Amino acid sequence: MCLQCGTALGFVPEAQELISLLPAGDGTWNRADGGPGRFRNCANLQLARCNWLLAADDPEALCRSCRLTSVRPNDDEDAAIEAFADAEDAKRRLLAQLTDLGLSVIDRQQDPDAGLTFEFLSSRNRRVVTGHEGGVITLDLSESDDAHREFVRQQLGEPYRTVLGHLRHEIGHYFWPHIVERTSLLGEFRDLFGDERQSYEDAMSDHYGGDAPQGWSETYVSQYATMHPWEDWAETFAHYLHIQGGLHTADAFGITVGEPSRSAGESAWSASGPVSIGATVGRWLAVTVALNAMSRSIGQGDLYPFVLSPNVVRKLDFVHRAVESATVSSA
């Protein structure tokens, strides 16, 4: 609801719109602005704090985001259920962004081969490994706990670790065969990211058994990306979503950045040569220079603790073109 006037609100995923609602008297809602359509809440309104709406005559009980979750904690697992709601919130943000970019996901119940599903499990009483395999994204709900996540982040030397970041990374694995492997972009992918046919098991053993490559930040967006071309792709894909999501929010709030941050953003990526994502990266770096300075001014660490080298910009550009190609071909 609106915290100022108390009007009920709901999100219409098909229209990518948050609307004001008036009760229709039968458990459904009308638009407060008098527009067309009648709606009802997702059945997970309380359990998952879900604010997505369905058409009043939709036979499904759950919205299309909640239907993608096939495994969740039991109702009596109070701590896990709270973490589950946090994870669902991040998933809705992810799916809304994918829709905004023109990328669609298929429900695995409808297509077991090409579809997607999410399993949200707590590692409190079992071993849970966050990851993706065959269209199944698994998330350890302990990642919703700030203390646990910060401990793991420091243990692994990561500058950034969030639930939304995990989901953006894993969805990159889901999209790789759809928008790269089965397209004409595969050869260019191997030139930029490496040959994904190399042993993943050996690469993982080498990554966790030794030190990070010297100067890795000149070529990779994160240390984890150095492990294998698949992880490099997923980390870069996730970072592309970070950038697009951050700029979308900045635009929505009318945030514009002037000097000196603007010039810093415009020049920082220029050594990479002309790339289609260049203007986007320039805007992003300008915004993050300003945000980091703002964060430091109140005694906090950098909000954006990353360096985008020319090589990383070229990889981001590849992701950008792969996404654009996928959206054009599906139009």
What structural keywords apply?
331 residues; 9 strands; 4-stranded mixed beta sheet; 3 domains; alpha+beta
Q: What ranges have pLDDT less than 50 throughout 5 or more consecutive residues? A: none
Structural class: alpha+beta
Number of helices: 9
State the helicity in percent bands.
Answer: 40-55%
Q: Please state the average pLDDT score.
A: 90
| Rg, Cα atoms, Å | 21 Å
User: How many domain regions?
Assistant: 3
Q: How is the biggest beta sheet arranged? A: 5 strands, antiparallel
Give the overall shape, derived from the CA principal axes. Answer: globular
Summed up:
By secondary structure, this protein is of the alpha+beta class. It has 3 domains: 8-62, no CATH class; 64-172; 183-331, no CATH class.
Describe the structure.
The chain has 331 residues and is an alpha+beta fold. The chain folds into 3 domains: 8-62, no CATH class; 64-172; 183-331, no CATH class. The chain has helices spanning 78-101, 146-155, 163-181, 186-193, 200-209, 229-252, 261-268, 278-297, 310-330; strands at 8-12, 17-23, 29-31, 38-41, 53-55, 69-71, 117-121, 131-133, 136-140. Strands 1-2-3-4-5 form a 5-stranded antiparallel β-sheet, with no helix packed on it. α1 (78-101) packs across α3 and α6 (229-252) crosses α9 (310-330). It is globular and about 65 Å long. The chain starts with 7 loop residues before the first strand and ends with a helix. The relative contact order is 0.08.
